[in-house]
Structures are given as structure tokens and as C-alpha cells.
Amino acid sequence: MANLEYKHAVLRLIFEGEVTEDGKMITKSKSYRNVRANVTADQLASFAATISSFSERSYIGAEKLETMQVI
């Protein structure tokens, strides 16, 4: 039977960027590597809110991207 093994995770914060001539918004992102496997959603939200407060751009949201290996 196959199992999944945690390899690593990245937290990506998404910010507003420029607006194109067509009126479409271009987003900007900043990634933070080495996110622990056992971090909770509340901890990630708190971290994202704290870090995004230092940015000049408006904060849109965050994503946790996990990489798993089938063993």
C-alpha cells in the first residue's frame, strides 16, 4: 500500500500589483520556504498578517503549498 511522506512546504503571500491598460490586476507574491508540517492554519494566518503589515502593497491572501512523496 502506498503512503505519502511530507517533503516540504512553502507559504506564498499574495499582494495587489499594478493594473494593466485593460483594467486587469497583476498580483505580486512573496514566498517563504521551510514551513513545518505540523503548523496550524491559525499560526499561518497570524504569520501572514504580521508579515504583510510590513508591505507597502495591499494584502490579498496566502497559500500553503505542500510537496509530498509517494512511498
What does this structure look like?
There is one protein chain. The chain has 71 residues and is α+β, with helices and mostly antiparallel strands. It has one domain. It contains one helix and three strands; from the N terminus they run E-E-H-E. A hairpin with a 5-residue loop joins strand 1 and strand 2. The longest helix is centred in the middle third of the chain and has 12 residues, at 41-52.
Task: Give the structural class.
Answer: alpha+beta
**Mean of pLDDT:** 94
Supply the number of structural domains: 1
Q: Choose one word for the global shape.
A: elongated
Q: What's the helix-strand series?
A: EEHE
The total strand number stands at: 3
Strand content: over 45%
Distance between the termini: 9 Å
Count of DSSP helices?
A: 1
Largest sheet, spatial ordering of strands? 2-1-3
Radius of gyration: 15 Å
Give a quick set of tags describing it.
71 residues; alpha+beta; 1 helix; 17% helix
